[in-house]
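Sample log: DUF3017 domain-containing protein.
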Amino acid sequence: MLVVVIGLVRISMYHWREGTTEIGLALLLAAFLRAVLPDGKAGLLAVRKKRKMDVLLYSAFGLLMIFISLSIIGGPLSSTG
């Protein structure tokens, strides 16, 4: 959650590209933690009973968010625009 908060602070400071990339990295960190932690220790990371599906979805959403944040040019929060 700390990485997400840092990303949201970066977005509020008009560094939206870095902030959304950090949130994507937080999702990849969640995927890694869900893969290595046992079910009893995973806590709220264990959304489904199947670990593989959680890891797949966390990874996919994280990579998608990073891809989108790096591929969008300009935008309403752009510091160059």
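Observation: The first helix runs from residue 2 to 12.
Observation: The chain has a mean pLDDT of 85.
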